[in-house]
Amino acid sequence: MARVLIVGASKGIGFETTLQALAAGHQVRAFARSAPRIKADQRLEIVKGNALKAADLDAAVEGVDVVIQTLGIGLSDMIGPVRLFSDSTRHLVAAMQKHGVRRLISVTGFGAGESRSSINLLQYGPFVLVFGRAYDDKSRQEKLIKESGLDWTIARPGVLTNGHKTREYRVLVDKKEWRNGLVSREDVADFLVREIDDRSLIGKAPVLIY
């Protein structure tokens, strides 16, 4: 089993990934500002830290095999400039390179990077108005990951729901198939945990939807 660092582990996709990685038998280091709220498990190491602080990430990365990055922000954080995703990724990549940790699995979203061109015309205007700043930064995040030289996989989920894990989601690697759709946080977590051992999608950034 792998030693896995989950960045952004206290809620949302990160919390679900923490639970599922533990259930799969992995040793998990849960990193978040509110990480101490996570229920303890003998294979769970809780690390309180700020993803925008290089020293915090440097300490968290040391000694792990795989890093899963699952950062998110609320709607209120999208009003002004957004730099969380790119700034934290810059620190994370540097820490991984320093400590020789190769495997990075990161969550961005449908609309980041080259997937933005697959948004249909009716959705494009509202998407840019509401999510534009955040996804501009997610695009910068993806660029940093792709230029890192690490063994990366980027997951681009569609619209997130609170549904249960079904394992019936689609993993769309081919750009011609990319489109928006629903997918639960639990199913995104299922994909991320599977990627811990699966190396077939290294260097790929699939869209996840039902």
From TrEMBL:
It comes from the Bacteria. GO terms for molecular function: biliverdin reductase [NAD(P)H] activity; riboflavin reductase (NADPH) activity. Residues 8-198 form the NAD(P)-binding domain. InterPro entries: NAD(P)-bd_dom (IPR016040), NAD(P)-bd_dom_sf (IPR036291), Polyketide_Oxido-like (IPR051606). PANTHER family: FLAVIN REDUCTASE (NADPH). This is Epimerase. It comes from Rhodoplanes elegans.
